[in-house]
């Protein structure tokens, strides 16, 4: 099932997410999130973006991770740890919930994340570079944080207003 994507202005994007109950069946939800993400041409999607305040995100790393590593990853109840010694790097980011907006964001280049997959198997992994950036971006969603919060917003006020007033219509359905 493809969900409409929640865009800026909807309060669910600003909520602190609840932990998913350990052992609960989230397979359909995970599949639906991947389907919604691919339909909207995204590389990551967090549960609040389909209107659910749950600690759950999905990512397709494409070629952003080294060969041999899993490309499609769902992270349930993730816990992120930044490598304090790693440097901050700045790259452009976008978000399905902020269609049309791109901004440079400083993020740590290296992170570690612990999470459960859909079978409730625990993982403890490190990511670097753009893969680390995607994880940090999606993880922020679980705490009501958006990438536009990192920078001076004056320049994008007009765009935010357009999203709120539905003047911007992306190729995917929004709510
Ligand atoms: Zn996002």
Q: What do these coordinates show?
A:
The strands form two sheets. This protein has a five-stranded antiparallel β-sheet with strand order 1-2-3-6-7. A two-stranded antiparallel ribbon has the order 4-5. The mean pLDDT is 95. It has 175 residues and is of the alpha+beta class. The chain is 19% helix and 26% strand. It has a single domain, classed as Peptide Deformylase, CATH 3.90.45. The longest helix is centred in the N-terminal third of the chain and has 13 residues, at 27-39. The protein has three helices and seven strands; from the N terminus they run H-E-E-E-E-E-E-E-H-H. The chain has helices at residues 27-39, 129-141, 157-164, and strands at residues 44-46, 56-60, 72-82, 88-93, 103-108, 110-116, 122-128. Zinc ion binds next to helix 2.
What's the total count of β strands? 7
Q: Helix amount, in percent?
A: 10-25%
Looking at the structure, what is the overall shape? globular
Question: Using only CA atoms, what is the Rg?
Answer: 15 Å
Main beta sheet: strand number and arrangement? Answer: 5 strands, antiparallel
First-last Cα distance: 16 Å
CATH homologous superfamily title: Peptide deformylase
How many helices?
3
């Amino acid at each position: 099932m493809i969900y409409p994507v929640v865009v800026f202005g909807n309060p669910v994007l600003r909520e602190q997410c609840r932990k998913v109950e350990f052992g609960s069946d989230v397979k359909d939800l995970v599949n639906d999130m991947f389907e919604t993400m691919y339909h909207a041409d995204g590389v990551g999607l967090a549960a609040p973006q389909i209107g659910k305040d749950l600690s759950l995100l999905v990512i397709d790393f494409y070629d952003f991770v080294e060969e041999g590593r899993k490309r499609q990853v769902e992270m349930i109840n993730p816990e992120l740890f930044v490598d304090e010694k790693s440097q901050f790097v700045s790259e452009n980011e976008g978000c399905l919930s902020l269609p049309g907006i791109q901004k440079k964001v400083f993020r740590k280049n290296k992170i570690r994340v612990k999470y459960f997959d859909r079978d409730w198997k625990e993982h403890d992994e490190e990511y670097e570079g753009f893969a680390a950036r995607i994880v940090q971006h999606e993880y922020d969603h679980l705490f009501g944080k958006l990438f536009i919060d990192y920078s001076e917003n004056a320049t994008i006020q007009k765009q935010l207003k357009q999203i709120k007033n539905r003047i911007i219509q992306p190729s995917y359905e929004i709510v």
